Amino acid sequence: MLYLLPLALFASALSASSDALSTKMTKNLKVLVSSNDFPESGLEVLKEHFTVLQSRYLHFGEEGVRENKEELLNLIPGCSALLWSSHHPISKELLDKAGPQLKIVSTASAGYNHANVPELKARGIKLSNTPNVLSSAVAEIAVALILGAARRFTENLEQVKSGQWDIGFTKTLGQDIRGSTVGIIGLGGIGQATVKRLSGFEVGKFLYTGHREKPEAKALNAEFTSLDNLLNQSDFVVLAVPLTDETNRMINSTTLGKMKKNAILINVGRGDLVDQDALYDALKNKQIYAAGLDVTTPEPLPKDNKLLTLPNLFVLPHIGSATVRTRSDMAVLAAENIVNALTGKPLLTPVLP
Ligand SMILES: *[C@@H]1O[C@H](CO)[C@@H](O)[C@H](O)[C@H]1NC(C)=O
Ligand SMILES: *[C@@H]1O[C@H](CO)[C@@H](O)[C@H](O)[C@H]1NC(C)=O
């Protein structure tokens, strides 16, 4: 057996030197990071292998996106990879400017409705996202929204700010999670993580709907049903589906009309899953009890938007995955997808492999 040792040493030396060689060979490849705020952990992974270009501007907010646009168009020619760290559409113009060596777009998000999938596919460009690593953080926000909407945080925080507390045995009463029926639209990673987190709240029944039954549902005690049944039985309706042509405005005047009068709508997916005018009417007329949204259309939601006049709406500024650890995990995964794409390895989390 001893003779194997030198062979093993030789093999490991060879693989170390081939790693060094491949790093040397990839160093001239350029990778563009779309925003000036991106976790260091992700940048480090990229810098180890590639030449990293990074926008000097923030890729968020109206001004940031405008300043960024020119900058990205100037930086992208010759880049082999694009790391996208926001939810803004990736324009055809940007892809045109890139040139044929662009191999991958890696978006640091679970949703990828901002990436034009048919366009990328037609150009032979790979696409990756960052699912799973953000499920628990987003599920925590789903629970926060459930509590915030059910216990009337918007009104209650207003009372604290104004000093006019409306305290009384029957004043500003909310709703219990205990004993309720919770309906999850989209029992993927985020939907499942939400059920797990809520299971300590003595929920009466979990329902879910989607294209097909999920094998994971059994262990979660979640029952598969139609959208119509879920809507008319649930006390909490949680939207955790990706935005697609099919799910666009799936919560509209018709579907809101099927919900219970005490129902609470939660959205941790994308703003366009909900017809906001119809939601405004349903909340204003108390056709449903309340809503909690982490996502809106547009983002930011202008402060004079009529939704923000509703006491029974609890809104957060799209912070689902916004924790130190989760954003770092997303950044590293997004970076590793680029490393794999440019070194001939399979993507870790492919959308277009
Ligand atoms: C809910 O909707 C389904 C499908 O339309 C219907 O069969 C069922 O009777 C409804 N249940 C309730 C409680 O309204
Ligand atoms: C409302 O959403 C349902 C379910 O997604 C859909 O079938 C229906 O066409 C939509 N209705 C309107 C008025 O958009």
From TrEMBL:
A GO term for molecular function: glyoxylate reductase (NADPH) activity
Domain D-isomer specific 2-hydroxyacid dehydrogenase catalytic span(s) in chain numbering: 38-351
Domain D-isomer specific 2-hydroxyacid dehydrogenase NAD-binding stretches: 143-320
Pfam families: 2-Hacid_dh, 2-Hacid_dh_C
Extent of the signal sequence: 1-20
GO cellular component, one term: cytosol
Keyword Oxidoreductase annotated: yes
Classification via InterPro entries: D-isomer_2-hydroxyacid_DH (IPR050223), D-isomer_2_OHA_DH_cat_dom (IPR006139), D-isomer_DH_CS (IPR029753), D-isomer_DH_NAD-bd (IPR006140), NAD(P)-bd_dom_sf (IPR036291)
Family: Belongs to the D-isomer specific 2-hydroxyacid dehydrogenase family.
Superkingdom, natural source: Eukaryota
SUPFAM superfamilies to which the protein is assigned, alphabetical: Formate/glycerate dehydrogenase catalytic domain-like, NAD(P)-binding Rossmann-fold domains
Keyword terms, alphabetized: Oxidoreductase, Signal
UniProt protein name: Glyoxylate reductase/hydroxypyruvate reductase
Gene3D superfamilies in alphabetical order: NAD(P)-binding Rossmann-like Domain
TM stretches of this protein: none
